[in-house]
Design goal:
The longest helix is centred in the middle third of the chain and has 19 residues. About 30% of the residues lie in helices and about 25% in strands. The strands form three sheets. Strands 4, 14, 15, 16, 17, 18, 19, 20 and 21 form a nine-stranded mixed beta sheet that branches. It has an eight-stranded parallel barrel with strand order 5-6-7-8-9-11-12-13, surrounded by five helices. A three-stranded antiparallel beta sheet has the order 1-2-3. The model has no long low-confidence stretch (mean pLDDT about 95). The protein is of the alpha/beta class. The protein has twelve helices and 21 strands. The site of pyridoxal-5'-phosphate has 17 residues, from helix 10.
């Protein structure tokens, strides 16, 4: 459920007409709903209420400071995957003890910054990384709390580019070698082992792969405890999928996910952490764009939008589907017609949808891409020297531009001309 709905023939974001924001901000832009963001966070938080837990929002899904502050105010922790994201979490006022640091290639400097600023735990991805974390901790005179990310070798049944839990993926250490690696971790002077981490992929639409992975983590917990390790914390990753279209089968709800987690690991008495990103931000954001031209091609009509693949790359990168709806509610009885919906960028890949049935549209009409809140703005680029588009946050009847559109001058002035030119 989200808060982008038609009222009196117009698309609203909570209590604000989307067209009104477009008139003030200009198109294209990302638009987020505070109520949807907080609702999704609370659903997860409540789903784990059966035991001690922390929901760490995976901020790589959408990392605007205003979004982070909104979620932090609800009590969210943060899952960060870079020094930049760590700095964002701190800047948003998230205390270090609520920040977990994931990612396959943490550098010396990133580790140092996190140990100095405060960190709940590092999720270690490899033995060389584990040794560097220990070294940095020793040099700072502290112990780094760690979990080790295990790769459980399960098929997440999702798009190949976002599956992370098979043995051929670059993530984590093979679960079969976990006891050996934990034994080394326990010997390293700068580390304090606190638990186990797993994350098998993104946009999972079934519970079964999670349950399989978490079952393996439960077994490993018992084995590691028998080896003398104190395992008090299980980080179970993110990955629960969202419905990108209203017609396909609905992914499991956070409540069902939470009950499955309890079944799989509830008996172990561990504190549970989860790292949802997409499910919190995905349906909390839309991309609003304007039709520049309707072009009648041979055997097909093109809707040429002012938004493009550089603003929302998911269709080009993952063949992702986004529902696209007109901002003015179509009159009932209008015969839908097929359009190829494209952006102005000079690549054929800049195609959002082919033969998409839409009500008849004309130049100047506004459309909204639904479910664009996660992996949207954060993956945008300035390709074709198109400015990064603004982000806007709605709360009730208020809205605020939480990232302005840069001017062409801003963009050009970021380059430096060498003296010899
Ligand atoms: C990307 C990622 C997440 C979030 O995944 P979602 O599918 O957005 O929930 C969580 N943990 C790790 C380690 C990740 O890389």
């Amino acid at each position: 459920m989200d808060h982008f709905i038609y009222q009196n023939g117009a698309l609203f974001a909570e209590d604000v007409p989307v067209a009104e924001i477009a008139a003030q901000v200009g198109t294209p832009f990302y638009l987020y709903s505070t109520a949807t963001l907080t609702r999704h966070f609370k659903l997860f938080d409540e789903a784990l209420d059966w035991g001690p837990h922390l929901v760490c929002y995976a901020m790589k899904a959408a990392s605007n400071q205003a979004i982070l502050k909104t979620l932090a105010a609800e009590g969210a922790g943060m899952d960060v995957v870079s020094g930049g994201e760590y700095a964002r979490a701190i800047a948003a006022g998230v205390p270090g003890e609520r920040i977990v640091f994931s990612g396959v290639g943490k550098t010396h400097d990133e580790i140092k910054a996190a140990l100095s600023g405060g960190i709940r735990q590092f999720n270690v991805e490899s033995e060389p990384e584990m040794r560097v974390i220990s070294e940095v901790a020793v040099s700072l005179g502290v112990q780094a709390p760690i979990t080790i990310r295990v790769n459980p070798d399960v098929d997440a049944k999702t798009h190949a580019k976002i599956a992370t839990g098979k043995s051929e993926n670059k993530f984590g250490i093979p679960i079969a070698r976990a006891r050996e690696v934990y034994a080394e971790a326990a010997r390293l002077p700068g580390l304090k082992v606190v638990g186990i981490d797993v994350h098998i992929g993104s946009q999972l639409t079934q519970l079964e792969p999670f349950e399989q992975a978490y079952g393996k983590v439960a077994e490993l917990t018992e084995a590691l405890r028998a080896d003398g390790h104190e395992i008090t914390r299980l980080d179970l990753g993110g990955g629960l999928g969202i419905p990108y279209t209203r017609s396909n089968e609905a992914p499991p709800l956070p409540t069902e996910y939470g009950a499955m987690v309890q079944r799989a690991v509830g008996h172990l008495g561990c504190e549970v952490e989860i790292e949802p990103g997409r499910l919190i931000a995905g349906n909390a954001g839309i991309l609003v764009s304007k039709v520049i031209y309707v072009k009648n091609g041979e055997g097909r009509d093109f809707l040429i939008l002012d938004g493009a693949m550089n603003d929302l790359i998911r269709p080009a990168m993952y063949e992702a589907h986004h529902d696209i709806i007109p901002v003015r509610e179509p009159a009932p009885g209008l015969e839908p017609q097929p359009y190829d919906i494209v952006g102005p960028v000079c690549e054929t890949g800049d195609t959002f949808a082919k033969e998409r049935l839409m009500p008849p549209l004309a130049a100047g009409d506004l459309v909204a891409f639904r479910s664009a809140g996660a992996y949207g703005a954060v993956m945008a680029s300035e390709y074709n020297t198109r400015p990064l588009i603004p982000e806007v946050l709605v709360k009730g009847d208020q809205f605020s531009v939480i990232r302005p559109r840069p001017t062409y001058e801003d963009m050009i002035n970021r380059d430096n001309i060498p003296e010899w030119l």
